[in-house]
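Re: [help] complex structure
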Amino acid sequence: MSRSSEPTRERIVQAANALFYSEGIRRVSVDEVAAKAGLTKRTLYYHFKSKDDLVAAYLAARDQPNLALFRKWFSETEGGVPGKVEAIFKNLARSARHPKWKGCGFLRTSAELANMPGHPAIRIGAAHKKKFEDWLRATFAEQGVKDPLKLARQILLLLDGSFAVVLLHRDASYMETAGEAARTLIETVLRKPRHRRG
Amino acid sequence: MSRSSEPTRERIVQAANALFYSEGIRRVSVDEVAAKAGLTKRTLYYHFKSKDDLVAAYLAARDQPNLALFRKWFSETEGGVPGKVEAIFKNLARSARHPKWKGCGFLRTSAELANMPGHPAIRIGAAHKKKFEDWLRATFAEQGVKDPLKLARQILLLLDGSFAVVLLHRDASYMETAGEAARTLIETVLRKPRHRRG
DNA sequence: GTATGTATACTAACCAGTGAATATACACAA
DNA sequence: TTGTGTATATTCACTGGTTAGTATACATAC
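Output below.
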């Protein structure tokens, strides 16, 4: 691990991020990534042992910032948990309306690599989603929700569903619809702590 | 449109269906499809003007059977609408546990072609989902649901979300979780026909 | 003998990965 | 201070294979 090579590696990952996310990993060649990073393919292969390795690095670089953004949207919203979760969807809708938006990089990669179930990139994507699921689960548990894991998974289904649907229809309003559904599911559980039929 | 060429074209679409769905459309070459169909690439290009054209035909062929299956699962289930919709998710979970299952062909194609928004195949996928959404909307409308379109979209978000999540985690139980969420959303709307806060 | 349909053989481009050489930096000995 | 070795970092040029699409010719039917 030399000190000076870190920026180079970082630049390659940035270039890979821009190209893989916007064009798809099978559509983009290693040469294109190298060109975008301003160096030769051979140099790229000095820092990454294969294209698959580069793809994994591309997704690994998206993990942290992505989660941080969700937590920020949640925490900066006033009010209770239902509204805070709904705010995540509202913010997502806003970002999905940007012309360069192309859905969720993790989900798109898992769709592209559906024939390679154990691929490192898919594992990184799965771990990413699990982290978010677990954060939601903990949040709901603090609210005294009876089955916080189930509720967390339902919210994630709506979240990932909205990525898929909005990418297909190019209609970001589905994200707001998903947010309303999330609010309904959370409120339903919060309102019946003991007895049935509120 | 000659009479005798129909079976050939059909055989090509079948081969494309098997390969594109299982391996992904960018991974599979036209030569492979032709070989699987038992003919040469040149013959394939006699029936389809380009690979994009073939991809569109592959998805068009999935449209009808797919919708028919959903309607069958719905209609063969006893009880009310919430249980009938939940049954769709249960049946989907069962099919998702088969080893050859690779998610939703329409969504995976839209993920692979995310950089080509107007692609014919994406339009076919969008139309397919809209048909299902509209069928659900009509079904909910018959039940006197106040905003049947919104509810139909929420169910579709759960449906497509479960495709994406199960493909990523390879855990079909998410589909049953989605089914429960769908039931909750439908029952919530059916139970409050007039006033707020039950 | 003309429409339809199929096959052989080809083009031109692309693509993941590598061999061999080179440049740079820095440690340490003279 | 200068010379030398070594690990790091980068480039050029290449290979072997793949790919979408085509030019041309041949077959078959009616």
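The domain at 1-48 of chain B is CATH 1.10.10.60 (Arc Repressor Mutant, subunit A).
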